[in-house]
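We emphasize that the prediction below concerns an isolated chain of 159 residues; any contacts that depend on oligomerization or on bound cofactors are therefore not represented. The input was used exactly as deposited, without trimming of termini.
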Amino acid sequence: MEGSNFEPVAFFGAIAASGVRAVLIGRRAMIVLGLPVLTADFDFWLHIDDVERMNAAVAPFDLRPDRLPAQARAAGRYVIENDEHVDVLVAREVPTVDGVRVRFDDVWARRREVEIAAGIVAALPCLDDLILTKRFGSRPKDAEDVRLLELLRGEGGGE
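Result of the prediction step, given as a token string:
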């Protein structure tokens, strides 16, 4: 593995400029919102029709997909990486651990754009949708992330 030509602000700028329908999810989204969590990777939920455009947008950073677009669509996910790691979800809808079906098109319609640097925005799910995406998995850290997000939303009661 060789080092990539990666710079986070330029990375987000390239994604935004490409017109790709991609929302930042996971702990990087929580960091953008100011929550004190750590992560080493990026997680995006991408419109299923935008795989090729996403790959083209991140190619200048020497990031390469681990699957062909058709394979990514069939699997519902893929990874773009070199010395950076980007997990990409490419499903029209995903169920939460308790069976709530979350549709990408609905999340995209409710997204919020957050300025991460002067003139550079990242699309994030609204807070309620970000909480739903954290309920896609049942890891202990996901439950803790939901708790932090609910506190941010004002529904955690301080506990």
